[in-house]
## 1
Amino acid sequence: MRKVGLIGCGHVGATVALDIVQGGLVDELVIIDKKREKAEAEVLDLLDALSLLPFYVKIYVGEYTDLVNADIILSTLGHIELIKPGGDRFTELKANIPEIKEVSEQLNRINFKGILIATTNPNDVIVNLYSQLLNLPQSHIIGTGTYLDTARMKAQVSKALKIDGRAIEGYVLGEHGNSQFTAWSTVRVGGQSFLEIAKEKNLDLEDLEEKARQGGFAVFNTKGYTNVAIAAATVSLMNLVLSDAKSIAICSHYDEKFKSYISTPALIGKEGVEALVKLPLTFDEEVKLKQSVCEIQEKIDYFS
């Protein structure tokens, strides 16, 4: 039986729950929120929709004791209301830290042994913190990291080339934040180097990269939040674990080389991060990756 716990029922959490239920992706979904009445309302809304959907999912508002045998817990809590237009994901950290500590205490109390996937921001700092607090192997703690940023890069490239974004391979690496960068040496379109294509078509790589970096704020500055794409990224990573996919995906994971969580490609399966993938980066890309690790560490040190 596929059992998933969802902690945090705001814009992202509610959309994640909807994606899971509409897709029939789990057998049992337990929702927890510090505002229990909010969780109850979301569950009621989902239950009302069940008879209209092709799949049955057992959905209920639960307690932490209900998560003891969960395969995966999704940390979607956050305080996006603290971020101002044009702001920074780091703004949420002070408010999120106490809640991350509370979640960790509760999960340790029930001796949770599954996989934790976090969307909570600033993502790399948060999964570093979870790693310090939870009684779990580091490989069982995953952040969405630049999974979504990579999708945003592909969206920009697909728009520039007028092709399906699923035809594009490649990665945005580093921090889920301002120090992230597109590793253009890894980007391929139908097996061809995108650098060659960009040169032929006279495309502005810096512009494409910046649009990908600012993609979240392009949505946030009008809506006041983001939810659809990050929910899709969260559910996609969840499915790789539940299905034991042994698939290569970009996510925030612990890298012994850097002594930190950082987004580079990894092999994802039922045990979480099962292996790291070494990319043949250029010298400049290696430098940018190290700089991004330093940015993450500075933010960790700021609140440690």
Note: The chain has two domains: 3-143, 147-303.
## 2
Amino acid sequence: MTEVSKGVRPTRRCLTDLGLSAPDLGQPLDELDNSVVAAAQAVPAQRDAGGAQRILSLSDRVWFKVKTGDQRAVVTQLHDGDQPADLPSGVGAWWIGAAGHRQADSPQRDFYDSVQRECTIGKKTVSTAHLLPVDWDWNRLTAEQAVAWRREMKRIVIRLIAKSLKSGHLAVAEFRRHRVKALVRADNGHEAYLAIIAEGIPDPKIFALLLDCVPGIAPEDWQPEPSQLAEMEPSPGEIIWSTLFPSAIASSILELDVEGG
């Protein structure tokens, strides 16, 4: 099962500093092909090992340095309560707040000096609050998770259908605390049918997304069980929907299963 990304994410401010545009939602920001983002992924482990270099001048919270070539960045870990409560543990905890270039020959333009000046209010007060993730960052993270969740669900559904096609038996998998099952059957020479069974998915919208993961089947072609098609009686806690399953769609699913590994 695909793991939820827990990497060090660049904020929107950081993307601007690096001259990067936000990619499509299928690309997690902590996996961007960029040297600063890649180098920042090592900071949590470096911190745990006592090897991360802290920026002492940013004293309102703990920030660490990221160095790669002549590029520089600042990374922090959010405190408990700074993140949305509905995020999985560890997701959205580490962020790259800003980035720039090292210019040792011109202290007035050196990145770490400029960040210090930017965050200093008056003579002594330091505030890095504006370097922390904003609504755009949290919305982007939530959208990435939704896309990843849908992609993982589709992969599992296709794998289950292919497995049942090959074996003729019920195929079962766990998906994010839910149990999903697929059964393909053709009895007594009749046209084949496909049944999708789920346990622990009380939200009809989620189940609709589950059915939508089956390529080639229109939403109106599904029907709830028990019906005259599959004549399956749901057990307590189960939801079952079935549909006729043409051989052309079965063949395409077998091909998708091979492509998906």
Note: The mean pLDDT is 89.
